[in-house]
Amino acid sequence: MNWYHQACPAPSAVHRQLAQQRQTELTKPLGSLGRLEEIAVDFAGWQATALPELSRIAVRVFAADHGISRRGVSAYPPEVTTQMIANFANGGAAINVLSAAQQADFAVVNMGTFSAAVASPKVYNLQLAAGSADLSSAPALSPELVEACLAAGQAQVDGLDCQLFVAGEMGIGNTTAAAAIYAAHLGLQGIDVTGRGTGIDDASLAKKIALIDQALALHADQLDSALGILRCLGGLEIAAICGAYIRCGQRAIPVLIDGFIASAAALLAVDINPSLRPWLMASHRSSEAAHELGLRALQLQPLLDLGLRLGEGSGAMVATPLLQSALQLHSQMATFAQAAISENT
Ligand SMILES: Cc1cc2ncn([C@H]3O[C@H](COP(=O)(O)O)[C@@H](O)[C@H]3O)c2cc1C
Ligand SMILES: O=C(O)c1cccnc1
């Protein structure tokens, strides 16, 4: 048995029950805090305590280049992947701002880019390959590379001390890989899953759809397993996120899934290891239309719908203050007994 098949523990049913009971005792009409009540109960189960708290958040942005990015499927050139790694190292990206605001443990994991590595204490330069292969003409990754990427995600999570994990991604062309994964996993075609990513025009969109259909046809006999899909259609950062998510479940660390690409990794991670599912939450609904199909397959209800289409873990980090509000309400509100207020009759 591979490490990633080992079962994740179940969240504590006893502590979920205790938190549910406390929610009925707080000075508010029953159910009036809606999803915030459910979040508190979920964290109670995850942390195995009736009064959970959230202060230690870890963010890992997994970056990689994609062979398919040379085919004109993005509004930006592939060099932007490495340029953005430098921006992450210098603190200038959206995810830097949001991570700093939450005092999150932030780092970038360079899984493999076309250009030379950016040296920085904030960047782990793994460079397992010079990007992935063009998935429309060859398998994106070798079987050995898939294993190495899954293990790299695992190793990142093994080094963490946190109460919540956020994976971000950076890789020009990775909405093409992610869309192909949705199609293969859900049994759909290019037209059903393809969006404009960084903002491509109609001609590039048509080309992106055609290349995805070409990839689905080329690899058809390899797409009946999550590992086959990851190898043929994935990317180095997508495979690493997949491994990181599975390790989070195994270590009882809840995961806040970011947008469209991170959800592609989550779809495959749950397929590989179904016991991961209770450890997952989704931050937001991306403006990539097919994201909704992935969220539905994962049976996840996103917290926010703000028209976000950035990635990097940014949507997840916008949602974390909401989680903290839910937990503060849960632990700090007075009960009916404490406040001497009459209960529901
Ligand atoms: C400056 C810049 C910063 C980004 N940060 C995240 N992405 C996002 O856009 C890319 C995917 O879109 P596509 O498939 O169309 O290339 C990924 O890198 C994703 O993280 C960015 C893209 C750009 C250009
Ligand atoms: O939803 C996302 O995660 C997304 C969408 C477009 C480009 N990059 C990321």
UniProtKB/TrEMBL annotation:
Does Nucleotide-binding appear among the keywords?
Answer: no
Q: What EC number(s) does its UniProt record assign?
A: 2.4.2.21
Query: What reaction does this enzyme carry out catalytically?
Result: 5,6-dimethylbenzimidazole + nicotinate beta-D-ribonucleotide = alpha-ribazole 5'-phosphate + nicotinate + H(+)
Q: Where is the active site?
A: E312 (proton acceptor)
InterPro entries on file = Nict_dMeBzImd_PRibTrfase (IPR003200), Nict_dMeBzImd_PRibTrfase_bact (IPR017846), Nict_dMeBzImd_PRibTrfase_N (IPR023195), Nict_dMeBzImd_PRibTrfase_sf (IPR036087)
Q: Provide this UniProt record's keywords sorted from A to Z.
A: Cobalamin biosynthesis, Glycosyltransferase, Transferase
**GO biological process: one example:** cobalamin biosynthetic process
* Pathway, per record: Nucleoside biosynthesis; alpha-ribazole biosynthesis; alpha-ribazole from 5,6-dimethylbenzimidazole: step 1/2
In its UniProt record, a GO molecular function of this protein is: nicotinate-nucleotide-dimethylbenzimidazole phosphoribosyltransferase activity
Q: Which domain of life is it from?
A: Bacteria
One Pfam family for this entry, by name? DBI_PRT
Establish whether keyword Transmembrane is in the entry.
no
Family, according to the entry, reads as follows: Belongs to the CobT family.
Protein purpose: Catalyzes the synthesis of alpha-ribazole-5'-phosphate from nicotinate mononucleotide (NAMN) and 5,6-dimethylbenzimidazole (DMB).
Q: NCBIfam families given for it?
A: cobT_DBIPRT, PRK00105.1
What name does the UniProt record give this protein?
Answer: Nicotinate-nucleotide--dimethylbenzimidazole phosphoribosyltransferase
Q: Which gene encodes it?
A: cobT
